[in-house]
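Anyone able to model this chain together with adenosine-5'-triphosphate?
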Amino acid sequence: MGILRFDNVSKRYAGGQDALAEVSFTVEPGEMLFITGHSGAGKSTLLKLIQLAERPSRGAVLFDEKNLLKVRGRRVAMHRRDVGVVYQDHQLLTDRSVYENVALPLILRGMRRGEIGKRVRGIVERMGLGGREKALPTQLSAGEQQRVGIARALIGEPRLLVADEPTGNLDPTLSAEIMDLFASLPERGTSVLIASHDLGLVKRMKKRVLVLDHGRLADDISPEDLADE
Ligand SMILES: Nc1ncnc2c1ncn2[C@@H]1O[C@H](COP(=O)(O)OP(=O)(O)OP(=O)(O)O)[C@@H](O)[C@H]1O
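re: yes, here you go
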């Protein structure tokens, strides 16, 4: 049973063409995969459907076999706890410390301060940011800032992590470091779906790759096939 399933999903924005057309695929628990394709191929749209930032025009997106079309109102926030999101520009609060940025999702949930502190310390260490808790994001390097963004996405222990061009602003060495960090997540049970147009980086990771072309799923390449190329 997949953690995420797209069943013949199409998405058409008002006045536009199909941004996604009849897309079907399944993501297993603990699987890491990439989604790639040209600019405008529909990568961001696909990730938005998972976060309930957009709704499909046709077809169904299922999370844990639950049709997301039925998730409305207060249950949208509950669903978003299960999906951690990492952005290209990390979207950190620049006037808040690393600690506060990472703690934010738990504060919003009303978790006890002691429990928040324990969790933040744990994830900050895991992301290699130990000792930087009091720093402001502007005092950190680009790679460190992105790791704070990943820590914030992971703090609520989501079942799935989605990332839209998470290394878009980083140099090749830092990009590889961040990718290795993502690759370490599935062994803890988190599935990871990363949109990237950096084909070199994607191929190096030797994971499953979904290829979008004008909204259609043009290819679904297994790690074994990738190794053969
Ligand atoms: N809010 C919107 N309203 C109308 N059309 C949109 C909207 N968002 C995206 N589109 C269109 O949908 C198509 C897919 O866009 P999307 O952003 O999903 O592509 P992408 O693969 O993420 O591109 P990029 O790599 O440039 O970010 C494009 O033709 C885009 O112009």
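The chain has two domains: 1-82+158-229, 89-157.
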